[in-house]
Amino acid sequence: MPMDAKALVAVVSIFLVAGCIEATQCNGAGCSVLKPFAGSDCNASQGCTQVLAAGDFTYCGLSGNTILVSRIPGAVPGRILGLGDYPHGTGLPSEYLDCFAPYWDAFKQRFYPVPGNHDYMTPGAEGYFGYFGPAAGDRNKGYYSFDLGQWHFVALNTNCTDVNCDAGSAQEKWLRSDLSANSGKCTIAFMHHPAFSTGVHGDENSVSAIWHALYDEGVDVALTGHEHSYERFAPLDANGKADYAKGVRLFIVGTGGATLRKLNGSVYPVEVKNDSSHGMLALRLYSNSYEWEFLPAEGYTFTDRGAGTCH
Q1: DSSP character at residue 100
Q2: Fold for domain 49-309?
């Protein structure tokens, strides 16, 4: 959220070169080639923090794609932002044990999770809170915040029939207070339900007050799952219109292994979308800027790369 009045919106060009992706970022200072996401060259001593993100991981009995996706954090370092719906069933503890843990337990200590709607199909999201333990926050809330490197993160519970998301609710008031107290930092919010979407679920009106808070308080990036697909939006205002000066850039990354679903047309400024590739989003975070790359699982080829600056 640091503000550079002279900053221009980054323009990113992507080229296919001998089967590799090369991305060039251009702004008021000129152009530079973005580094590939090899992983090992992003470290705190260089002012760089790397995270991975995905949601909607697996169905019991249909684990092939989540096995492929789980190989990504084996090769790429960084904490993992879990965007909800881990075993895509009814959230039972046995589903976590039988259908999620065999493939993701090796990376469990790297997760910062948020719950999905399938997690609350078991009362109190017992399987979710039991599996992730203290990392999931207070069982009665499911929302929390933390810092990584120079960035601030807010993890939100958008299961709004279980934990109120309305304006004036405990969660919404906590969110505004937390963001106000960290207004000098670049910020990522992550949750399960997207306010805007071209997927089968469409817009989640129940999170409108949450999205308004994110916009009002100058959050830079929002990450969600729920839709089994990938979408990257232009920075959005509180009503889903493009706002390159102050908007929140929304990524939907429901590509963790559950069966993919088709996307529809959109009235919103969607910059990139894909409904045929499983994978994870990688983010490299610097003091006042960030880079992203969609990392496809083995056997898939879609990718998306670019960069942006904090407000």
Answers
A1: I
A2: Purple Acid Phosphatase; chain A, domain 2 (3.60.21)
